[in-house]
Amino acid sequence: MKMSTSLSESSKLPKSVTISERLGKELQGNEMQNVSSGELLAAFELDTEAGVAARDALISGAHFDLWLDPVPAVRLLGICSVRQRNLQRRGKQTVGFADTIASLRNLGEQGLLVAYVNDRERGGHYFQLFLDPAPLKVIGCIGVSTAPGDGAAGDRT
Q1: Sheet with strand 125-133: strands edge to edge
Q2: 35, 56 in Cβ contact below 8 A?
């Protein structure tokens, strides 16, 4: 189940129930659009370089997607590890992988929500967020530069 919007779009929508009240329930039609960027912004307690940049992108109106179906942290750990190796091999600039992988290692089978923040229109990164659903809190954030020929390999964090 995916929710997609930007800060400017979601601020115009009526506020309904919170994300945590919706977990485990099937959302109908435009109910997914009622998940506000404000709810996502309130979940940011992460002060890493990637977390701060993703939060700033949301505040600036970047588009975001949020999936309300939890995924086990151990599965996300495997995906992130492979993704990091592939991006490094391609010479893409990344931020936040080391911190996020360390956080995911400690969570085992705990279900996490996944979100994306797309700041590419402003020349920024494409961020992937991992959130603890109860209480809603960002526990990890990775960012990938999509600039052509950025060439800076490795993770800055």
Answers
A1: 2-6, 63-72, 111-118, 125-133, 136-145, 93-95, 154-155
A2: no
